[in-house]
């Protein structure tokens, strides 16, 4: 029933807010500080205007977009997100099946609630492993070895979390990872019986990529990661290396020189620093600094297929959606996820038509040839 009521990402969010415990909803939806940065990111995307053309035959349109030698059937993929199974039992595998069906990259988080080996299997190889540095980096390197053994060919190193940002909504609810239930959380869950009973039936979501020896503490500092660590990782990982969380053109130029294969411009969904640069503006500056050929990906603040096309017009080669996919799952399970995916696809295709374009690959920044 929830799936039939999803006509935009805002509908999915509204339904999810009603159905999820407050703690879970605010973990997915919340941002850093006063959340002004999140609002600015949205406003900046909303303010972008696209060039529209008429008398172009756009009756046949393609959303396919090449990325790392493969043709994705959409110009957007699935961003890595931690503990997705909080949005609904089996959410990770719903996302993996979606990635397989549309041949789009699925970001598999270090803190996923399904083992990385299972995720790439269900995604039929359309999966990239997202890596967090932690401690002295040794546990992260063991995960790198596991990813290689499982068949991943793309590693996404996330560098915008030297320390976990302060997210007041999480703090008010006492959110913890690994997931813990105290009296306050118990009352919250009791007021949301549909989610609670379903979660109880399927088991509490866990951090699936960690052993007893390699425990993960979300609050541990990652502040010791530096350029020498990147060099070590680049030497060790023979596949494609993407660095995610870049908002500075000078950093981007140095990363390119260090041999990374792509950069993902991202503010971590505004979850890290309330006063971080507006990511869509950073994307434009980084594209200008790196030139037209270097692969640039984008996430943060995207809420529609039209937003994805806007990001392409600002210099992205490919885009990623995050939390709105979790909202769709919370709203209507796998049917809800598919419903929102079709909405995003329709929005992107209609945007191309209004622009007088027949393929997402034709979307370029204004100065591009």
UniProtKB/TrEMBL annotation:
Keywords of this protein's UniProt record, alphabetized?
Answer: Flavoprotein, FMN, Oxidoreductase
Keyword Flavoprotein applies: yes
- Molecular function GO labels: FMN binding; L-lactate dehydrogenase (NAD+) activity
Cellular component terms (Gene Ontology):
plasma membrane
Tell me which residues bind glyoxylate.
27, 132, 167, 268, 271
Query: Record's superkingdom?
Result: Bacteria
GO terms, biological process: aerobic respiration
Q: Which cofactor does it need?
A: FMN
Q: Does the keyword Flavoprotein apply?
A: yes
Q: What residues does FMN bind to?
A: 80-82, 109, 130, 158, 244, 266, 299-303, 322-323
The UniProt entry annotates the active site at 268 (proton acceptor)
Q: Spell out the InterPro entries in the cross-references.
A: Aldolase_TIM, Alpha-hydoxy_acid_DH_FMN, FMN-dep_DH, FMN_HAD
Residue intervals of the FMN hydroxy acid dehydrogenase domain: 1-369
Q: Which family does it belong to?
A: Belongs to the FMN-dependent alpha-hydroxy acid dehydrogenase family.
Return the PANTHER family for the record: 2-HYDROXYACID OXIDASE 1, S -2-HYDROXY-ACID OXIDASE-RELATED
Q: What is this protein called?
A: Alpha-hydroxy-acid oxidizing protein
Species of origin: Roseovarius bejariae
Task: Provide the organism lineage as a comma list.
Answer: Bacteria, Pseudomonadati, Pseudomonadota, Alphaproteobacteria, Rhodobacterales
């Amino acid at each position: 029933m929830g799936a039939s009521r999803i006509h935009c990402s805002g509908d999915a969010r509204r339904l999810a807010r009603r159905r999820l415990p407050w703690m879970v909803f605010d973990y997915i939806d919340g941002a850093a500080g006063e959340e002004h940065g999140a609002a600015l990111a949205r406003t900046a995307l909303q303010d972008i205007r696209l060039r529209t053309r008429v008398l172009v035959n756009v009756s046949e349109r393609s959303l396919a977009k090449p990325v790392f030698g493969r043709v994705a059937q959409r110009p957007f993929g699935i961003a890595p997100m931690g503990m997705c199974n909080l949005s609904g039992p089996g959410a990770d595998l719903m996302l993996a099946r979606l990635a397989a069906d549309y041949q789009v990259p699925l970001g598999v988080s270090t803190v996923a609630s399904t083992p990385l080996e299972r995720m790439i299997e269900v995604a039929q190889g359309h999966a990239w492993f997202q890596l967090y540095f932690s401690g002295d980096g040794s546990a992260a390197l063991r995960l790198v070895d596991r990813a290689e053994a499982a068949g991943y060919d793309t590693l996404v190193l996330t560098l915008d979390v030297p320390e976990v940002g302060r997210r007041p909504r999480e703090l008010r609810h006492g959110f913890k990872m690994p997931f813990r239930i105290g009296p306050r959380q118990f009352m919250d869950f009791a007021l949301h019986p549909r989610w609670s009973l379903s979660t109880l039936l399927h088991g509490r979501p866990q951090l699936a990529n960690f052993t007893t020896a390699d425990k993960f503490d979300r609050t541990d500092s990652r502040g010791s990661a530096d350029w020498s660590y990147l060099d070590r990782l680049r030497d060790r990982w023979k596949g494609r290396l993407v660095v995610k969380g870049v908002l500075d053109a000078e950093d981007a130029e140095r990363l390119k020189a260090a041999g990374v294969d792509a950069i993902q411009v991202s503010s971590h969904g505004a979850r890290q620093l309330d006063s971080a640069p507006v990511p869509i503006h950073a994307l434009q500056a980084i594209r200008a600094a790196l030139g037209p050929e270097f692969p640039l990906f984008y996430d943060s603040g995207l809420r529609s297929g039209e937003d994805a096309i806007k990001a392409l017009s600002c210099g992205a080669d490919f885009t990623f959606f995050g939390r709105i996919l979790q909202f769709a799952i919370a709203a209507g399970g796998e049917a809800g996820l598919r419903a929102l995916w079709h909405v995003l696809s329709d929005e992107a295709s209609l945007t191309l038509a209004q622009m007088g374009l027949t393929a997402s690959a034709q979307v370029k920044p204004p100065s591009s040839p």
